[in-house]
Amino acid sequence: MKKCIILANGKPPKKSIITFFQRRGYKKLICADGGSNSALHMKLVPDVIIGDFDSISSNALKEFKYVSKIIQIKRQNDTDVEKCLKYAIKNNLMKLY
What we know:
The chain has a single domain (3-90), classed as Rossmann fold, CATH 3.40.50.10240. Helices cover 35% and strands 21% of the residues. It is built from four helices and four strands; from the N terminus they run E-H-E-H-E-H-E-H. A four-stranded parallel sheet has the order 1-2-3-4, sandwiched between helices. Strand 2 (26-32), helix 2 (35-41) and strand 3 (48-51) form a beta-alpha-beta unit. The longest helix is centred in the last third of the chain and has 11 residues, at 80-90.
């Protein structure tokens, strides 16, 4: 099983925390909608951006348009973080116990 980091909207962790986990095998970076704004600010490239896209900046969307997998899910039954968690489980990036 691979490991992933999910970066949500809100106050982001320091970039050093993300790189710490990346060095320990957490290779996939998944951004929940507005989390991509933080990724852009930290000069990190998400592998996947998932959400309803009500929080992503036009700059982040433009910057990551061709380098990240973009998955827009407009359904409001789940939060953007829940959408990322479901994606991670479905793609064997995490397990529920």
